[in-house]
Amino acid sequence: MKFAHFLTLTATVALLGAARAELVFKDDSGQDVRLKAPARRIVTLAPHATELLYAAGAGDRLVGTVEYSDYPPAAKKVPRVGSYDRFDLEAISALRPDLIIAWESGNPAAQVAKLRALGLTVYSTQPNRLEDVAGQIERYGRLAGSVAAADAAAAQFRQRLERLRRTHAGKPPVRVFYQIWINPLMTVGGPQIISDAIRLCGGENVFGHLPQMAPTVSVEAVLAADPEAIVATGMGDARPDWLNDWNKWPRMTAVKRGNLFHINPDLMQRHTPRILDGAEQLCADLEIARGRRPAK
Q: Residues 232-242: what's their mean pLDDT?
């Protein structure tokens, strides 16, 4: 009996030790991130990170975020710590977060480094492909201890993505210029998740060969590329007036065929489940462009 009691005690101690073991995650920058337990006080430094946290079933762990974190509606009530490109280090520290979720290509690297120097735990994210959104949701669930909800949301995203992929596979390619802004004239490069959405719809990003996330281009370069469709976002759900500026060049194929389209940037430019809403609209727009091709 004494030996049996010893085995039971040893097993109990081992289980307690495992329960107290650190949780170790590798973030998208390749750094190991260590937590003593699933995070309960989280600060997000990008609107898409906020949305992903809610999608993972962990919105109640959010204690601070940045401007434009407006979805879902509950996120509007969360205290602000600045903007994604300039946040308040003191305000973040005062919230006593046990985890900060940063955006690798969007947040200033120097400020993120200062957060780490203050001893704060930072998890850096960079989803560049549509499939990455599902993986991000799963990781957020593990970071925050909402695994079941996160896994269910990730599975739903993957199923919807696969349906879209099957629907648009093999479609004739459409050359696309995706315009983020007018001054400076900005587009998306090859690594950007929007380029992946364009490919999903059977499109070809005319600036997909560029390595930058959001390169600046010239009007002359766009004219030389002669896209069959121009898709613009802008600042909100309203079609930007500057999209019509392309009508100055009536010989460009996109203008000639009336293929000037607008999509709400919140749907296309956030790495969240709603990007599939944007992708559906994008695919529909490119299908319109195919339908406007002259009969052979």
A: 87
